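Worked example 3 (structure in, sequence out).
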């Protein structure tokens, strides 16, 4: 791999991002420009921008990594990410645009006439935004380290600086152009290398990972273990090691017997062609025969059916609660344009998610050594070089690296705008709108940058899945009931946000900070949506029923505005 080509690719993407952001500065003059691009973004441009910010590190790298490690169960991630927009289209998109709000807290306050609901919503927006930003910065660090050998912190820091430069300069105006460009760059960065990868795969006789019961090395490969890890070996293998294995220094052949073995940080392991790959994942995910069977490879090993349904619920309902997704619908001219935007997004996402899925399946055959180190998120970055090789392989790898950085930049930009908008309005209002927004942008990026260095052990898609779980357990009930049920009260909304959002957040913090373990407790903590979402809806309904005499006096007018076409309530036509 040529690090020079990768550095050039990253530099070009960074330069294009800053350049497009600078173009947006000329059009950003008012508060509305900074927050919602003056509500004048066309459906196609907005759909491309949504695709740009929504297809994050989890989509570009994480989905392929999970499919490599766990198999076909992980197809629920891209399916759920896409179908979430169908739910958004049916229940939320147009009414939310007609509400006239800038942010989710704006919507909560205007619908329920409660400052307390607004403060709770603001807190959850910041929390979800930081949870989602963290894996973007982790992915940037992983990509730059894999491509160039740079320190692990550098990639995240680079993305943070570029995002701040773009967002602070032009707000939503700037990042709309940036994200639309980056969506199409990501599609090209995955599809063009995949054409060459599939051609080589076909020329080699289309080898399949199901040919053996355990993943094996196709060529002799040397792997450097980045940090101390425990390996699970199901079949005795001999490797050449230079470093520390099982607490003793070794420099030569080592027989790894069946069972667990500890490999020290910095140890180099060389596996010959045909060697069974010892893995850093649990034994239940090692067998190729189980890898292709449903409900056998989900991360919730002891309760795979529960884990699958909880993941489906989180991704289906979490999309409507993601602040960086919802803020884009405020930029449409009207509710009809919001619906058209959503339909276009469904098409764009459906096409994109075919690509990382194929990468993940091929990685089981050509990059099984990633199972040894646990760095499965690197599969997309390494496949072109492994299969194509030579100068062509280096150039294709550079293109994938550029696409990965585009993913981190675009998603991070959208998240920064949504989080900064809330902080500026609810925490720093005295500084003035535009100045407060710029200060808030720094705060919005700094906290997740620190978190990305602390919680580096979580796979990217898993980390994003936790953000979806919190969103599904908090804003999904608030939006659905707030838009479609007149009986929702401020007390009911507070009860649901505290119960659903609080429990989901607690489960997420435990999962991020510690190993939740196995059994039902581990499954419930690592996949909390299945129990947190129903509890949130129940708490909102019961709380509203108990306080049914406190329905805000302007509720009928607010609901009429959300459900009536703009041409009627604006007096036009």
């Amino acid at each position: 791999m040529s690090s020079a080509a990768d550095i050039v690719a990253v530099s070009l993407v960074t330069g294009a991002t800053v350049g497009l952001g600078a173009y947006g500065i000329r059009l950003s003059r008012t508060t509305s420009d900074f927050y919602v691009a003056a509500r004048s973004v066309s459906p196609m441009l907005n759909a491309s921008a949504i695709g740009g910010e929504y297809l994050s590190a989890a989509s570009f790298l994480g989905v392929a990594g999970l499919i490599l490690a766990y198999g076909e169960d992980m197809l629920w991630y891209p399916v759920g990410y896409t179908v979430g927009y169908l739910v958004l289209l049916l229940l939320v998109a147009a009414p939310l645009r007609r509400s006239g709000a800038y942010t989710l807290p704006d919507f909560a306050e205007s619908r329920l006439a409660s400052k307390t609901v607004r403060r709770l919503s603001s807190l959850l927006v910041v929390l979800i935004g930081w949870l989602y930003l963290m894996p973007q910065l982790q992915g940037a660090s992983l990509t730059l380290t894999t491509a160039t050998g740079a320190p692990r912190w550098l990639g995240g820091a680079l993305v943070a600086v570029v995002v701040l430069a773009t967002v602070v300069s032009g707000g939503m105006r700037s990042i709309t152009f940036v994200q639309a460009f980056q969506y199409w760059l990501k599609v090209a960065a995955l599809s063009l290398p995949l054409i060459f990868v599939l051609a080589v795969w076909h020329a080699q006789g289309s080898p399949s990972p199901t040919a053996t019961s355990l993943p094996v090395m196709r060529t002799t490969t040397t792997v450097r273990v980045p940090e101390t890890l425990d390996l699970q070996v199901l079949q005795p293998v001999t490797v050449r090691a230079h470093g520390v294995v099982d607490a003793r220094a070794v420099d030569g052949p080592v027989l790894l017997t069946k069972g667990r073995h500890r490999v020290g940080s910095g140890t180099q392991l060389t596996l010959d062609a045909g060697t069974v790959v010892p893995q850093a994942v649990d034994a239940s995910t090692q067998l190729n025969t189980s890898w292709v069977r449903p409900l056998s490879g989900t991360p919730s090993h002891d309760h795979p059916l529960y884990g699958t349904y909880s993941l489906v619920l989180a991704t289906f309902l979490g999309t409507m609660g993601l602040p960086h997704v919802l803020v884009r619908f405020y930029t449409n001219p009207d509710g009809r344009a919001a619906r058209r935007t959503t339909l276009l997004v469904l098409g764009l996402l459906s096409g994109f998610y075919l690509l990382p899925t194929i990468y993940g399946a091929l990685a089981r055959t050509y990059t099984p050594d990633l199972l040894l180190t646990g760095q499965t998120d690197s599969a997309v970055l390494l496949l072109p070089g492994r299969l194509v090789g030579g100068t062509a392989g280096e150039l294709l790898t550079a293109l994938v690296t550029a696409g990965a950085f585009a993913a981190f930049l675009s998603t991070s930009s959208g998240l920064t705008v949504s989080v900064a908008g809330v902080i500026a309005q609810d925490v720093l209002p005295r500084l003035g709108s535009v100045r407060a927004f710029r200060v808030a942008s720094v705060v919005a990026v700094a906290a997740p940058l620190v978190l990305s260095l602390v919680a580096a052990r979580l796979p990217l898609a898993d980390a994003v899945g936790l953000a979806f779980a919190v969103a599904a357990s908090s804003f999904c009930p608030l939006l659905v009931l707030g838009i479609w049920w007149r009986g929702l009260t401020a007390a009911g909304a507070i009860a649901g946000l505290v119960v659903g959002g609080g429990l989901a957040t607690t489960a997420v913090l435990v999962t991020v900070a510690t190993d939740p373990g196995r059994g039902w407790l581990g499954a419930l903590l690592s996949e909390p949506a299945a129990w947190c979402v129903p509890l949130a809806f129940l708490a909102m309904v019961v709380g509203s029923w108990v306080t049914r005499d406190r329905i805000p006096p302007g509720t009928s007018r607010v609901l009429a505005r959300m459900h009536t076409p703009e041409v009627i309530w604006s007096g036009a036509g």
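Notes: Residues 171 and 272 are 52 Å apart (CA to CA). The chain has a mean pLDDT of 83.
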